[in-house]
Design goal:
With 336 residues, the chain is an alpha/beta fold. It contains ten helices and 13 strands. The strands form three sheets. An eight-stranded mixed sheet has the order 6-7-5-8-4-9-10-13, with helices on both faces. Strands 1-2-3 form a three-stranded mixed sheet, with helices on one face.
Length: 336
């Protein structure tokens, strides 16, 4: 094995801070060069928070400099390149937000909002400072799922987020009547995403979860351009029709240089109360095959439970229900 290959293998063994996945699979290493023991590594971390950048650089330096044959190590730091740099606006997300996690899906109706809400609540229950943006402008369900109906009064010219179960939340549903549809083109949704990032008094946050609408359209692009998320989670069911569209969502995030943290398979099975047998209503093993095909972690498999539906309708998420199998799985995902 050449020294260059040896360095690549070492980089593949270094985990992204706070995750089990390595830097190379996250797409954070763009180049390794070597000449007579002089090793140069190009890291694509310029869009990350300064403390995260420094942690990654320190991890790389500590590990690679120990490799036999490495006489000197140079580390270059760059940022992801967008397809059209002239059209890409400068990021506007506040520095007080440590990490932004986008939750997306290629297809509607797969439980994306359920996953986003429950992950936010589960992380808040762990003691993290968590915010949640309901960016599904055309179908904003997050307020109902959390049992909140309105925002507090604004302060100092900024929107004050509602707070429930330790999660600070904003949604277009707080700003328009419940029976009024939002019929907007891209420029208006772009302005709203920017406003939710800059004109909300978020305070210090460890994680901001963003519930995206289905698909790969304007709102997802606006979030990525304005906020440069730390990572994305893709939600799908085991059904091939859903996985076909989830594949497009993964490709979008990867094309726009957003690390895909993994896949959550929702509605994996239904367990009968009487016979206690598992029934695969939407197929079996689709999420596992999908994640293996795309070399992504399968973060969790959520059963189809009446309590999840009931909790979403009543504003008490499954992540708070100790007897919910889906809730336990969601808490495990949040632990990762």
């Amino acid at each position: 094995m050449t020294l260059k290959d040896q360095v690549w293998q070492t980089l593949k063994s270094i985990s992204y801070p706070g995750y089990s996945r390595d830097l190379v699979s996250f797409g954070l290493v763009s180049r390794v060069a070597e000449c007579d023991g002089l090793v140069t590594i190009s890291l694509v971390v310029g869009n990350l928070a300064p403390d995260v950048q420094q942690t990654i650089i320190s991890l790389v330096r500590a590990r690679v400099e120990q490799e036999p044959g490495v006489k000197k190590l140079n580390i270059e730091v760059g940022a992801p390149q967008v397809a059209n740099p002239r059209a890409a606006p400068a990021p506007v997300a506040p520095a007080s937000i440590s990490h932004i996690i986008a939750v997306g899906s290629g297809k509607g109706g797969v439980g994306k909002s359920t996953v986003a809400v429950n992950l936010a609540v589960a992380m808040a229950q762990q003691g993290l400072r968590v915010g949640l943006i309901d960016a599904d402008v055309y179908g904003p369900n997050v307020p109902r799922m959390l049992g909140v109906e309105s925002l507090p009064p604004p302060q100092d010219g900024k929107i004050t987020p509602a707070e429930v179960y330790g999660v600070r939340v904003v949604s277009i549903a707080f700003l328009v009547p419940a029976d009024k549809p939002v019929i907007w083109r891209g420029p208006l949704t772009d302005k709203l995403i920017r406003q939710f990032l800059t004109d909300v008094a978020w305070g210090e946050l460890d994680v901001l979860v963003v519930d995206l609408p289905p698909g790969t359209g304007d709102i997802a692009l606006s979030l990525i351009q304005h906020a440069q998320p730390s990572g994305a989670i893709v939600v799908a069911t085991p059904q091939e029709v859903a996985l076909d569209d989830a594949r497009k969502a993964v490709a979008m995030f990867q094309q726009l240089k957003v690390p895909v943290l993994g896949v959550v398979e929702n509605m994996s099975y239904f367990e009968c109360d009487d016979c206690h047998k598992q029934h695969d209503l939407f197929g079996h093993g689709g999420g596992e095959r999908f994640s293996h095909e795309l070399r992504l972690p399968l973060l969790g498999m959520l059963p189809l439970e009446p309590s999840v539906r009931a909790g979403g309708d009543s504003g008490r998420p499954a992540a708070l229900q100790k007897n919910s199998q889906a809730g336990a799985e969601l808490r495990k995902i949040a632990d990762r």
